[in-house]
Specification:
The complex is a heterodimer of chains A (172) and B (660). Chain A folds into two domains: 33 residues; 127 residues, Nucleic acid-binding proteins (OB fold (Dihydrolipoamide Acetyltransferase, E2P)), CATH 2.40.50. Helices cover 26% and strands 25% of the residues of chain A. In chain B, the strands form two sheets. In chain B, strands 3, 4, 5, 6, 7 and 8 form a six-stranded antiparallel sheet that branches. In chain B, strands 2-11-10-9 form a four-stranded antiparallel sheet. Chains A and B meet through helix 1, strand 1 and helix 3 of A and helix 13, strand 1, helix 14, strand 2 and strand 8 of B. Strand 1 of chain A pairs antiparallel with strand 1 of chain B, so a sheet runs across the interface.
């Protein structure tokens, strides 16, 4: 086999490889990209109930409620996610992440139920109490909770003191 | 004083790196032997200086020196000594010093073990390593000085993030860094070859051990990270397609491709430009991983509080190294003339296919990982790309890869026939199909896990068929096969073992596809059932540790009314960080893990949230990875790697070819 023909073969193979990778990526993108929405976004434009998305903001202080449960029940937790301007109620069945706290930035993934509650299938709170998810920081900015010209966003930890009397949210 | 010494050592290392990045490179251009000879002592000196700096930082942590900002922010006097020490690299600044120290050790290793390298090549490699080191030292000193002082001293430190106070942390970052930095060495070899305009079998022989070692460490580092996430985070999963996990997977994938194409360069002197390109991209991916972790541009479980200035600096470094490398590549790649010619159906052809598929998977993972960044920059939309995307897009590419990786090692170099390969593999295919149907029946018609098991059997069986073929196991007497097995090059064993490791990991992943979990709220004395086991919550008690308090649950696992084991998951509270962590209880018999997590307790009723998992074959994921790393280490011990370049003729004479 000559070099020219071999090169042709390799080019052809590369074409197939790149083509199939692109096709796979595009089809997978169509179904699987998850958009981020802040509470204000949702009030402005309510997503369709079948579409799953990520809702992020701060866990509103004093909003965390645990449902009384009997033997064998899946434990249910209700809380509200706020960006300072608007609030969305959320229910979640599961073990909350270790850093889930009232006043802390949180990102939840899920979709709206027919009852208007956001049903989270995933609750993400990060490993570091001073860390603020970038989407949440952006949502707070847009909602006017934090003005960029006043400097860096207040550390998420300071929001822990919003409701000092109540010890909830698995926190201190 | 010690901190100042460390700072000074860091600055000294930077000066040495500056000299190392100029003198040997210039000397090699001017054919000045004395200038070229400066490379080795400079690399050694730099290594010593950085080791001193690292030692000083470790000392500051060990004595809990609260006048050092880095210690104040990341340590605490009440922390156990082990975690004070490992805390040295549990933060941004310290981990950078570790990164540079490992790079320094690699440079010293090149200068110590590279005596047989051509002088100019060694000088250039050391020069490029010095340049990389210089960039990272400048970054450390400019944006993240670990030795900054604070006055007056803080009363005590703020504590290390409790989630990092684990033995996994002691090993995970150093192993990953060994892998990343190993690709810095192959990168340096690639750049040196581009400057010289020459790539030959000797070059391939030098690059292969480094890429093997880097791959081996990276494999272990990723596996350890995955195992750590499995038992520390308590989510019951082992891989989350998190951006930072992907960032370590990208260099691993490219490194896998590099590993294979370097063999072709070494044995057949073909695929030269391609191998150079892979070496450049592998290091680029390592840098990208560093950038993603350190800049915090992506929302990830590894995101700690970050500084955008640092991200920008690393992005600058990434651009500098990659743009320089690609520019050089564009000008010099034509000089690499391939001499080995091969047919499409041949070992080389199989490796090209392997490279193609792996690079396609890399492209898919790369796009999925970085898409949120691009979407934000281009359209201002906040999106995230999660596991469903990665599973859907990479799975169809993994299938042909697993199919082909069985056939590749059975093909001869240059030109192969498909029929003999099929003859050697037909019984493996039969086993694969049988496995599929058995798994389908046993799992209650779950197709995807059954496919996974079939491929696992196929890959492991093919690795066995490869060894059986090489030792003529079924064609001659056992004694003859045994003596052939002993004479087989270790690289052949290594390859077969590493391939089998992939199969075992695939089996583990398929098994996790059948994992079951249950989330319940239990009061003491109540129980739940999962996977044929009864899990009874006996009690939840208080416990006190050195720097934490905990609530520990006692869960008795029963099978057919017989008590099997008491599992004791806990939820720890760290007062210094005001943070909870989950202590998972895992009981394994190597075929399956019983996995229990305790969540919050209801104050009013005393009920506790309990999550139990039955994870089929979960340990196989990490056992498979360990076997892969072992295979690479065995290849590394191969004769042709151990024997130095000038003795090449002796190796050529030795019968290392396939005995079949």
């Amino acid at each position: 086999m000559t070099r020219k023909r071999r090169r042709l073969w390799i080019l052809l193979l590369c074409g197939i490889g790149v083509g199939s990778a692109t096709a796979l990526t595009l089809t997978a993108f169509q179904d699987n990209i998850v958009f981020f929405r802040s509470p204000s976004d949702i009030i402005a434009e309510r997503p369709a109930p079948e579409r799953s998305f990520r809702l992020g903001g701060l866990v509103e202080a004093g909003s965390v409620e645990r449902e009384q449960s009997a033997n064998g029940d899946r434990p249910t937790i209700r809380f509200r996610v706020t960006d300072g301007a608007n609030t969305i109620p959320v229910t979640y069945q599961g073990v909350l992440p270790d850093l889930f706290r009232e006043g802390q930035g949180v990102v939840t993934a899920g979709r709206f139920g027919t009852d208007g509650m956001f049903r989270a299938t995933e609750v993400l709170a990060r490993h570091d109490e001073t860390y603020m998810p970038p989407e949440v920081a952006d949502a707070l900015k847009r909602a006017g909770h934090w003005q960029p010209e006043q400097g860096t966003p207040p550390p998420a930890a300071t929001w822990n003191t919003m409701q000092p009397t109540r010890t909830g949210g698995g926190g201190s | 004083m010690i901190a100042e010494l460390g700072h000074f050592a860091l600055a000294l290392a930077m000066i040495l790196a500056l000299a190392q990045s100029i003198l040997p490179l210039l000397g090699a251009e001017m054919r000045n032997g004395r200038m070229m000879a400066t490379g080795a002592p400079l690399a050694l000196g730099q290594c010593l200086a950085i080791a001193t700096a690292f030692g000083c930082l470790m000392y500051s942590y060990a004595i809990n020196d609260t006048t050092v900002v880095n210690v104040v922010q990341n340590s605490h006097s009440a922390k156990p000594m082990l975690y004070k020490i490992t805390g040295t690299w549990g933060n941004h600044e310290g981990s950078l010093v570790l990164w540079i120290m490992i790079l320094g050790i690699c440079g010293a290793a090149v200068s110590a073990f590279g005596r047989e390298l051509p002088t100019a090549l060694r000088a250039r490699v050391l020069g490029v390593l010095g340049l990389i080191s210089l960039g990272f030292l400048a970054f450390t000193i400019k944006t993240s000085n670990p030795f900054e002082r604070v006055w007056p001293p803080a009363l005590d430190g703020q504590g290390l993030n409790p989630i990092l106070q684990d033995i996994g942390l002691a090993l995970h970052p150093p192993l990953l860094y060994l892998g990343y930095v190993g690709y810095a060495v192959t990168f340096a070899f690639a750049i040196a070859a581009l400057i010289e305009g020459r790539v030959d079998a000797a070059w391939g022989r030098w690059v292969r051990p480094w890429s093997l070692a880097a791959w081996s460490f990276l494999t272990m580092g990723i596996a350890l990270g995955s195992w750590w996430a499995y038992y520390e985070l308590g989510w019951g999963g082992y891989w989350f397609w998190d951006p930072v996990e992907n960032a370590s997977l990208l260099p691993w994938l490219i490194g896998t491709a590099l590993l294979h194409s370097a063999i072709v360069v070494e044995k057949r002197e073909a695929l030269k430009t391609w191998t150079i390109l892979l070496a450049i991209i592998a290091f680029g991916m390592s840098l990208l991983g560093t950038f993603l972790v350190r800049s915090g541009v992506l929302n990830s479980v590894h995101s700690f509080a970050n500084d955008p200035e640092r991200g920008l600096f690393i992005l600058g470094l990434l651009m500098f190294y990659l743009a320089g490398a690609f520019l050089l590549f564009a000008f010099r790649a034509r000089a690499m003339i391939p001499t080995g010619v091969f047919a499409p159906v041949s070992r080389e052809g199989a490796i090209v296919l392997n490279n193609l598929l792996i690079c396609s998977i890399t492209a898919v993972v790369f796009v999925g990982t970085l898409w949120p960044l691009f979407a934000d920059a281009l359209f201002g939309s906040k999106v995230s790309v999660g596991p469903p995307f990665f599973n859907a897009a990479s799975f169809p590419l993994v299938v042909p890869l697993l199919l082909a990786m069985a056939a590749g090692p059975l093909m001869p170099w240059k030109r192969a026939q498909l029929v003999p390969v099929v003859m050697k593999l037909w019984w493996v295919a039969v086993i694969g199909f049988a496995t599929f149907f058995v798994a389908l029946l046993a799992s209650g018609q779950q197709v995807l896990p059954a496919v996974g098991f079939a491929f696992a059997a196929w890959v492991v069986g093919a690795a066995f068929a490869d060894i059986a073929d090489r030792t003529a196991l079924f064609r001659t007497s056992l004694g003859n096969a045994w003596s052939r097995a002993k004479g087989l090059p270790r690289a052949a064993w290594g390859a077969a073992i590493a391939h089998a490791g992939i199969g075992i990991t695939a089996a583990g992943i398929a098994g996790m596809g059948l994992a079951q979990e249950r989330l319940v709220s239990l009061a003491a004395g109540e129980s739940t059932t999962l996977a044929g086991y009864e899990w009874r919550l006996d009690s939840v008690r208080d416990e006190v540790g050195p720097n934490w308090t905990a609530r520990r649950a006692y869960i008795t696992v029963l099978r057919d009314g017989r008590e099997l084991r008491v599992m004791t998951p806990a939820r720890r509270f760290f007062p210094v960080a005001r943070m909870h962590t989950t202590e998972v209880a895992i009981h394994t018999n190597l075929m399956a893990d019983l996995y229990a997590v305790i969540g919050e307790e209801e104050a009013a009723t005393g009920r506790a949230v309990v999550r139990v998992h039955y994870n089929l074959l979960a340990p196989w994921i990490w056992i498979g990875a360990a076997i892969m790393a072992l295979g690479a280490a065995l290849s590394l011990a191969d004769r042709r790697v151990r024997v130095s370049a000038p003795n090449r003729a002796a190796i050529r004479a030795a019968p290392t070819t396939r005995p079949a």
